[in-house]
UniProtKB/TrEMBL annotation:
Keywords: ATP-binding, Nucleotide-binding, Translocase, Transport. Gene3D superfamilies: abc- transporter (atp binding component) like domain (2.70.50.60), P-loop containing nucleotide triphosphate hydrolases (3.40.50.300). This is O-antigen export system ATP-binding protein RfbB. The keyword ATP-binding applies. It comes from Paenibacillus vortex V453. Residues 5-246 form the ABC transporter domain. The keyword ATP-binding applies. One of its GO terms (cellular component) is membrane.
Length: 409
C-alpha cells in the first residue's frame, strides 16, 4: 500500500533582506551583488505517513512546523526535494485561511468545498452537518469579517472535518475555542481516525499529541530530530523543553570514562597519582543501556582505584538527578551495610535497580567515593553518565508509585 504522505529530502530556503529596498537593488544589480542572507526553514527533512496514522508534529516556535505543513498542502513549493501526497487533503493552517472576509459563513462553506473539488450539489448534502457542528447560530449568515477568533475556529473546523478528507491537517487550531468545542473537535477527529483518515496534528499541548497520535515527528531547527511512537518522542521533546539543553543522544555510548581511560588489557596496572593526598578515585562509570523504559533493569558499574594499602571505612555512593540537578535518589554502601573491596588496587561493583520506577526523561548519574561514614569525600564525579527513559503512555510525573484505587461510593 502506498504511503499517504512521502516527504523526501525537503529543503525550504528563504531570502532575508535587511530593508525592502535591498530586494530591488539585488534584482537590478549589474554584477549580481547579493543583498540577502539565506535562511533554511527546513533542511533535508524526510519521513513517511501511512494510511490511518495520526502523526503529531512537535517543535518550538520557529522550528519549521508550519512551513512543513504548507509544503505538504501545496501552499508553497520546496527549494529542493519532493512531497508526494496520495489523497484529498483538508487543512486548517491558519484561522480564516481560505475564507473570503466579505462572504457569509454559509457562502464560505461552499467556497471551501469548491476549492476541495466538491460540486455545489455535493456540498448541499453536507452543509447542514457543517452548520450544526459550527454552532454559531445566526452568524452563519453574516460576513466572516465580523467573526471572533472563536467563530473562525468553529467554522474552519466544521468545514475541514465534515468533508470526509483522506488527510486532515490541523495546525494549532484547537488552541482557540472553549472546552466544549475542543472536546467536540477531538471526538470528531477520533471518529475520522477510526474510519481510516490520516491526520497530521500540530500542537504545543504535548499531552494531546501523546494521547491522540500513534506517531510523532520532532522538528528542531529545520531538521528531523527524532521520529517514532508518539509517547516516546513526546517524552524526549518534553525533557528537552524542560531543561533547555539537548540531552537526547548525549548518553550514546554504554561506557563513559570519567577520569582516565580504563584499559582492560592493563587491568592490574595501577598508576599512582602524583598528588599523595589522592587516596582513591572513580575511574569509570558504565551502564548496560543508555535508553530504557520504566521498569527495565538499570545496572551501573562503578570502577574505582584505591592507592593506599587499606582504607577501613571506604564507601561508594550513587545518586540519580535530573539534568537541572533535582535530586531523585542516592543510596550508598555504608548505609545499606554492603561490604566492598577496601585494599590497594582496581575494583568494580555494580549498583542494580531491578525495576526502574522513573518516568520519561533524561537522568544523570553522580558517583562518589567517601570515607568516615561519608563525611570525607575522596573523589566525586558529577554527571558521570546519563540515560534516557521513554515510555508507552500510561502515566505522568517523575516516578511511578505503586498504588491502588478504591471506589468508596
Amino acid at each position: 500500500m502506498k504511503p499517504m504522505i512521502e516527504v523526501k529530502n525537503i529543503v525550504k530556503k528563504y531570502r532575508l533582506y535587511n530593508k525592502p529596498i535591498d530586494r530591488l537593488k539585488e534584482s537590478l544589480s549589474p554584477n549580481k551583488k547579493k543583498y540577502h542572507q539565506e535562511f533554511n526553514a527546513l533542511n533535508d527533512v524526510s519521513f513517511i505517513v501511512n494510511k490511518g496514522d495520526a502523526v503529531g508534529i512537535l517543535g518550538k516556535n520557529g522550528s519549521g512546523k508550519s512551513t512543513l505543513l504548507k509544503l505538504i498542502t501545496g501552499v508553497i513549493s520546496p527549494s529542493s526535494g519532493e512531497v508526494i501526497v496520495n489523497g484529498k487533503i483538508s487543512a486548517i493552517l491558519e484561522l480564516g485561511a481560505g475564507f473570503n472576509p466579505e462572504y457569509t459563513g454559509r457562502e464560505n462553506i461552499y467556497l471551501n468545498g469548491l476549492m476541495m473539488g466538491y460540486t455545489r450539489e455535493e456540498m448541499d448534502e453536507k452543509i447542514n452537518s457543517i452548520i450544526d457542528f459550527a454552532d454559531i447560530g445566526t452568524f452563519i449568515e453574516q460576513p466572516v469579517k465580523v467573526y471572533s477568533s472563536g467563530m473562525f475556529a468553529r467554522l474552519a473546523f466544521a468545514v475541514s472535518i465534515n468533508v470526509e478528507p483522506d488527510i486532515l491537517i490541523v495546525d494549532e487550531a484547537l488552541a482557540v475555542g472553549d472546552i466544549r468545542f475542543q472536546t467536540k473537535c477531538i471526538e470528531k477527529m477520533k471518529e475520522l481516525k477510526s474510519n481510516g483518515t490520516t491526520i497530521l496534528f500540530v500542537s504545543h499541548a504535548t499531552e494531546q499529541v501523546k494521547r491522540f497520535c500513534n506517531k510523532a515527528v520532532w522538528i528542531k531547527e529545520g531538521k528531523v530530530k527524532a521520529e517514532g511512537a508518539s509517547s516516546e518522542i513526546v517524552d524526549l521533546y518534553e525533557d528537552y523543553m524542560k531543561h533547555g539543553n539537548d540531552y537526547f543522544g548525549a548518553a550514546n555510548t554504554n561506557s563513559v570514562a570519567v577520569n582516565r581511560a580504563f584499559d582492560k588489557s592493563d587491568e592490574e596496572t595501577i598508576i599512582l597519582p602524583e598528588d599523595p593526598n589522592i587516596l582513591a578515585s572513580i575511574t569509570n562509570v558504565n551502564i548496560t543501556k543508555d535508553e530504557l523504559k520504566s521498569f527495565d533493569q538499570l545496572e551501573i558499574e562503578v570502577i574505582y582505584e584505591i592507592y593506599e594499602n587499606f582504607i577501613e571505612d571506604i564507601l561508594i555512593g550513587v545518586a540519580l538527578y535530573t539534568p537541572k540537578r533535582d535530586y531523585i535518589f542516592g543510596p550508598n554502601t555504608h548505609l545499606e551495610k554492603i561490604e566492598i573491596p577496601k585494599s590497594f588496587g582496581r575494583h568494580s561493583i555494580k549498583y542494580i535497580v531491578p525495576k526502574l520506577p522513573l518516568m520519561g526523561g533524561t537522568y544523570c548519574i553522580d558517583v562518589g567515593i567517601f570515607s568516615n561514614e561519608g563525611l570525607i569525600c575522596l573523589n566525586y564525579k558529577e554527571n558521570a553518565n546519563q540515560f534516557v527513559v521513554t515510555n508507552d503512555y500510561f502515566s505522568e510525573g517523575l516516578v511511578y508509585l505503586n498504588h491502588r484505587w478504591e471506589v468508596v461510593k
